Amino acid sequence: MKIVSGVMLTLSFMAILSSPFNIRPVKGIWAGTVYIRADGRIDPPDAPIITYDYVTYFLNDSITSSGDGIVVERSNIIINGAGFVVQGSGASDSKGINITRINNVKIENINIKGFFYGIWVYNASTIITGNNVTDTQRGIWMVGSTDNIVYGNNMLENIECSVHLEYSWGNNISGNNIAANTYYGISLKGSSGNNISENQLTNNWCGIWLTYGSSGNIISGNKVANNFRGISLDYSPRNNITENNIANNEWGILLYGYSPGYTNRIYHNNFINNTNQAQVTVGYENVWDDGYPSGGNYWSNYMGVDEKSGPNQDEPGSDGIGDTPHIIDANNRDRYPLMYPYGTETFKLIITTATGGTTNPQPGTYIHPAGAKVNVTAFPNTGYSFSYWILDGETRTENPISVIMDANHTLEAYFIDNIPPEISEPMQNPLPDNVQPFQDVTVWVNVTDYGTGIKYVTLWYSRNNGLEWTILNMTKISEGTYQAIIQGYENCTWITYKIIAYDNAGNSATKDNNGYGYKYHIIPEYPSAPILILLMLTTLIATILLKKKKASNLPNFSLIIFH
Predict the structure, then answer these.
(1) 3-class DSSP state for residue 488?
(2) Collapsed DSSP state (helix, strand, coil) of residue 533
(3) Average pLDDT along the chain
(4) Full-model pTM
């Protein structure tokens, strides 16, 4: 029987070790203040806290107190509330958990309600995680303390504030849900070098408040929404405020109270639909961006465009940064406002063109959010036509083309010169009706091509109405003007000619008088006008002289008329 009793006792003890949270007393809630003494004792012994190693202490029932709830005098311990409640009566200066001048105390999984201070940390270091601190005057209050970690707690409906650091440094406040507090969510007074990150601060009078020279703090990755004031800095310089989502507050960020050397760095935040996005008291001059290309903040009321890139925003292509600064006041401006909320996944679209045209948007590198549909249109230059796209190595022929931004993409437009040159009506010297036997004839034309340009121009002429052709290369004598010389031939020769021009893409054009060719005849069948007049005058003179001879019996003479 003794062996069996010993086994049962051992099993019972193991059950206690393995399942401390399941222990529930049958009597009423314990009332009073519990002390964990410096030597590890629990005082009074009947308090609903147990320990097996004087390191980890478990609540096995709730506690109610008109004074302090649990007073911790021992360092290097863990207090696990197992989900039980430590309930106060709201007495002035009462503390749910009192941690004074000790180090390395972990407080977890406790529901703390109704005290003046939910958790009091004075000149101590702690880890406070997984607790619910509600309905207190001051939620977690730290004074003169360093190296504290407060994460993963719910702090709701407290009056003055949920997490307060006073003349404390090197503390990490992260991942907490802080909501519906009458005044401040997180407040720092004269505290420096603290990290406040990844907290959700909603429906408070002020989400985060820094005052009395709180400097060198990092405020990053917090969601600050639906507060009267989102983030407020009062006489607090040299803080880094980055990667916060600050939305739907009456004031997004408010900086006031002049301080010499005041410069806060405020960048990569999202200011979304705050009634007043940012306000700075006269005298403040802060840095609102992280330079180029890192950029500044996203402002939902920014009206600029993103058509350029580069440090001066004067280079082709977008870069996800507005082309003009976002102005806060005369001394404060975000030089590189972001076009999309910080943290938005974006991809690059690189647009290039081959010779012969351009695109809209014009060639360059563009930043677009993931999932965006981007339409790009190709516009050929005069003398060219659009041929095809190469999208990430794939040939596409539609124009415009739609690109879904699900990755980085490259897009190149190709154009083709399939338009022949233009040839003017040819001119010649001498004119077609005045070409003398064996006289050379100069022919010139104007030829233009707006694509790849003129390669060469030829003159084709025939003496047998096109049965055989002689080809002459025309010489460029000035921009767009070409000429060739047809050698002289005997009289009564008919010459037919035409012009054929070629561009560098292989297109050709022919000018041939609509298929009839341009013609001239060497020496017409009838004399020219001056010779005809001379013959008529000579004939008239001869007739007059013959009549006079008959009338006066003048001697005979010979009249020679050359024809």
Answers:
(1) coil
(2) helix
(3) 90
(4) 0.75
